Predict the 3D structure of the following.
Amino acid sequence: MEDRIYVFIIGTAGCGKTYFTKAFSEYLDMKRIDHIIVNLDPGAENIPYQADVDVREWIRLDSIMEKYGVGPNGAQIISADLIAGKVEEVKDEIMLYSADYVLVDTPGQMELFTLRASSELIIQSFGKNNCVSVFLFDPVISQRASGFTSLVFMFSSASMKLGIPQIPVLSKSDLLPEHEIEKIVKWSKDPDFLYDGLAIERGISRDLFHMLRDSGFIREVIPVSSITGFGMDDVYEIIQDIYYSGEDIERLRY
């Protein structure tokens, strides 16, 4: 297995992917771990980090809109497909660096990465055994049992589509009071407690809940804060366990 580890940051729009990427990069800097950042979002503006490899060097949203006569949403979809044709060029740029970690910041709309063919091509090119994803649970959506379960469903969809180990992370935990964080973490550790919350809301079907539970997709989330750096050490240790300490990769993959 190649020593280089590719960490894909994915999640719903507004969940904090870009700032998590920045915070995890700063954490790796603190530990003096050589790494680079790859921006895969052609529509990104004013990103808070310096991208070492940036897809906007090849594909820009405004140019796509002008060339194809589409709006921002249509341009995002076209761009996601065009990235597939630039995979080798992106990889060639990455290989110029001797980094141990490659942090990959994915497009804001999760489905543009997880559901398009370009994601499979990118992961295959990088080497599936070298890739892991960090799935960010939005803290606002996660406060309701139905919202948390919906995110678990998206987590499961991404796991099945990407086929790589996936780490569930509760982002922006500094925005939540301690009792809310404890409740969300307990939902992720105790499906029966989550089921009780769903029964009160009556917002998610029992069949969906049982499918997620029985398939093992309800897994303990790691609270993190991109502001304070809280939880970054936990994420790093799990990644290390996956690749260097014999962690059960199949358990994290599906």
Observations:
- Residues 145-162 form the longest helix (18 residues).
- Residues 139 and 213 are 21 Å apart (CA to CA).
- The chain has one domain: 5-244.
- The chain is about 50% helix and 15% strand.
